[in-house]
Design a protein that fits this description.
The chain is α+β, with helices and mostly antiparallel strands and about 350 residues long. About 25% of the residues lie in helices and about 30% in strands. The longest helix is centred in the last third of the chain and has 29 residues.
Length: about 350
Amino acid sequence: MNEQPIHALDPRYYTDPELFKAERDGLLSTTWQFAGHCSQLNNPGDYFTFELAGESLFCIMGRDHVIRTFYNVCQHRAHQLVSGEGSTRVVVCPYHAWTYELTGQLRAAPNGHAVPGFDKSAICLNEVRTETFVGFIFVNLDPDAQPMDTWFPNARAELEAWLPNWQTLKPLEWVEIEEHCNWKVSVENYSECYHCTLNHPTFATGVIKPETYDIQPQGYCLRHTTECQSLDNMTYDIDHSKPHADEYSSWFLWPMFSFQVYPGNVLNTYHWRAVDTERVVVWRGWYTEGGWDSEVIRRLAVQDRATTVEEDIKLVESVQRGMKSRGYKPGPLIVDPKSGVNSEHSIRTLHQWIREAHNA
């Protein structure tokens, strides 16, 4: 019996608001999601807020130098506790001045002693699973979630090898780029290089050798590997004595974050934040030692935005428009048994993860 080709997902996965809501309540609430960078929390009491799956959360550094994440809501009568970013000795609710330790434990409630049976030791902010990963902070709303090293086996060790200075890296810039498409359209575009030679001439001729490019699953990580073109024409100097300095690699952590390491051990990150069914904001991050300004990295970031980023925006927004066409019937994926750059085996893997999430 002949094996039948695997077809792309039905358009409703990208256009149905009910499916988007199901992802927010399920997939985004039970997977590891980027919160911020450890350098945002240097001292006890430093905090920043962010949103995930419709929830307001905040990360804060404790006096024990442990980073914790809490739902941003007072346990008294639900007022939000903090906004933006800053530093504080204790967390004080603006509504009735209920005060919490940096561990989330209730410290004081005005006139609480007048209430029979009031036990402040029994009241604590609701904490969220938090891990640090090569200098980045990730959270998971599922208290029973497996650790990141189980989700993404070997990714931590590999990134530490490709980024020998990871402990000193800080953000130089984070740029928010809005794309008018479903977040999965953008993630899928990132997760295959079948389109690279035709659509990314700078990337395909200046960095990678397309004929060597491959993407393989590593747990819930999609691992991008390639040989590089000659680095003689790179627009910045490379210290060839450092491990992996002559390589480009990428680690996509399902469902919405990716580390890219360019030749010269230059770190760039992607973070997708789904706004609604047809809008996603992609945060592009660039990093230097100590966060010091670097004309070299800024030029690289500008070149990247002018080429690969702009080229991809046109592609993903066209795909989103096509998803709504009554003339579109999902075609077969090009899955080459030998994998390689002209194969969509990585998209097959993504579609499997998407189906698993929705079936759950």
